[in-house]
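Appendix B, example 12.
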Amino acid sequence: MTTVALLAWVYLACLHGRFWQAGPALAPARPLHAPPVAVVVPARDEAELIARSIGSLLAQDYPGALRIVLVDDGSADATAAIARALPGAAERLTVLEGTHRPAGWAGKPWAVQQGVAATDADFLLFTDADIVHDPAHLATLVAEIERSGVDMVSEMVALNCESLAERALVPAFVYFFALLYPFAWVNDPLRATAAAAGGTVLIRRRALERIGGIEAICGELIDDVALARAVKRGGRIWLGHSALARSIRSYPGFADIWRMITRSAYVQLRFSPFLLVLTTLALALLFLVPPYATLLRFDWMALAAWLLMGATFLPTLRRFGLSALWAPFLPAIAAFYLAATIAAAIDHHRGRGVVWKRRVYSGTKA
């Protein structure tokens, strides 16, 4: 079994789209043209963060027409009022009160749909209410979509990594995402692999219309990846890391990150017990067998697999400015993610679903 684990890590390190590399990132740039852009921000109970997020969008240094549409998705706090009171809001910001969600629609896609319907801009930027944008961010995204000619540009924004729980677990989130969706494969038009990161998605309106609009992904809980799949079927997409946008949502404790993982982990497996078993076996082979065999009987192939595993984690640790001493603990981190995934599956099959911002997610689409 240790031989299989080592061979698997050799494959992943050498042939799996070089997923472990730092990945592409956009440098600040100015577009040759400045087409009209509408920024759609779905928000629900974001009073603590909305001023910083919308404020950074209002401060964008973009030479073209820019409209920001905040869709207040049934907030029970002062999210909308805070946004309306921001400097410059009267000129660039529209706040929509979200309407009741129709049957078959997930919450976020329905909120985005309402924002899209409120504007006719040629380009649409979908971003979350917990993202802060550098003033050059929008111009850089438009410059890239113009330069490359792709239909959609998406970025994995910089994530909070300050608390002990965040330092221990957040870098692995980016690592596992790249393992599932190697950026090089996503950006290769000849490969079917498609993914996006919902914090920043710039899309051409004509591409969105080609796939049938947001309605094409209306019931998807992992809406960003679903959108990328739909767009790539007849077009091209680009995915990278962002140096110009960051999430300001914090996860101070391990329980907070546990809840974040359980919200989408079993959805990613399409609520399939078979895929859960397959994933559990695969993760156990890759991440748990090497340290177990190394510590139990000092199997040299297990040790080699563990070292290779840690080496692939180093570029991600450097991106977050963390010590390489975290690398040997990747098996324990993977065990945490696996346990949260199993817990999510148990909750789903017990009919509990996942509660996020007073909304229960118990659908069946990934």
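The beta strands are 37-43, 66-72, 93-97, 123-127, 131-133, 152-158, 200-204, 237-247, 354-356, 359-361. Residues 181 and 195 are 6 Å apart (CA to CA).
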